[in-house]
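Researcher: Structure prediction, please.
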Amino acid sequence: MDSVTQFVLGAAIGEATLKPSSLNSTPDKPRFGLGAFLLGGLFGTLPDLDVLARPFLNGPEALGFHRGLSHSLFFCSLITLPLALLLKRVYPKLGLSLKRWSAFVWLALNTHWMIDSLTTYGTQVFLPFSDFPVNVGSVFIIDPLYTVPLLVGTLVSLFRNRDGRPIRPSGVLFALGISTFYLLLTLGSKYAVLQRFKASLARESIAYDQLITVPTPFNSILWYGYADDGTDVWVADSSLLDSSQRRITWQRIPKNSGLFPQFGEGPAGRRLLWFSRGFYRLTTVDGKPAFIDLRFGRLKTWLKPVDPEGTDYVFLFALKPEKPAGPYNDFGRARPQSRDGEVPWRLILHRVFGGAPAAGPRK
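Model: Predicted structure follows.
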């Protein structure tokens, strides 16, 4: 998830675990004040400090390192006790037990990767035992319906009466409950739209090896479906507010797997294939080899017929060395290029509420 969401979630954890007054308000209990909010936010974003290593890594190394060990259950659990001991020493006057500090650290660190694993990007939760990227794909990386209620409830818990008691001591717990319930709803939405896509593929007689669903920006109502048949990737959209009679239209995107014969032999190709989980396209941009991860969509979106040869893909990688023969040892993120320039937000909103999709051929 985005850094703001991670900070807010960590702050909520801090409010719930470090401030006894937020759970059971009595004047004789120590209060952390704003410190619980800020310290929670800090620890909630701590795993993302792996980005500081980016200048020292090449493309394949950086792609594997981000959301890697620092986002794993093993590492976050391993460093919990040392960090808890450090915090207990730094804040002795608070009188919080080592158990309380440990609960705070463990929850702040581990809820980070838990919510990250619900996005499409992928989180290596099981390192160092497995580098399998967990990517449930039920939440967009920025979702205000999750973040805003959590932020409001946490901020409410900061306000106090003249005697120092919180005005709404259960505000943070209510916010955590509401936001968690929303995440459960997104899982239900994902399952419902997955069944729609499966039924549509069966009606269209499109065979596939794997099928995934991905939420569109800032909501969990409008979804993209990606079906990989080994040669092509079929893409479609569906809103939970679509009428039951509406037919889903699929667009075929050739993967061009044989475009660069030695693509999978170098470290760059192996890492990109691992990351994309098979939903990719090989192409050339300005005559230079490039790799596209289709799961993250296009600036112009998939909501209208598109030219597969376009270069407005969000996750576009320039392969190095820049020659078709390969093998490729490195890559860099390339900036998506769009002749239209702007993301069609009106079209997205139109489709979210079940508006008619743009007409176009199946392939």
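Model: Residues 204-352 form one domain.
Researcher: Thanks, that helps.
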